[in-house]
Design goal:
Blueprint: H1 2-5, E1 8-9, E2 12-13, H2 15-20, H3 32-43, E3 56-58, E4 64-66
Antiparallel strand pairs: 1-2, 3-4
């Protein structure tokens, strides 16, 4: 499982596959698995973040539709 999670696809690692390893519960008396999961946590880096507000409107059929809003022009 670990080898397949770290396999390159188009020259890139699949982050979702690596993070899926964290959902696996492994009993390890040596603590190696826990240290490996901590290493994954330490390697995560948020490149950019900004607050997001999404507003939905319920249409007559009862389905929710995203209300498009562009706040980039607000000064």
């Amino acid at each position: 499982m670990v080898d397949s999670a770290f396999r390159l696809t188009n020259g890139r690692l699949d982050v979702k596959a690596i993070l899926a390893l964290k959902r696996i519960n492994v009993s390890d008396d040596t603590g190696r698995w826990q240290r490996a999961m901590e290493a994954i946590d330490d390697a995560l880096e948020v490149k950019a973040s900004k607050p997001c507000l999404r507003i939905y409107n319920r249409n007559p059929r009862g389905r929710y539709e995203l209300v498009p809003m562009d706040f980039t022009d607000i000064g």
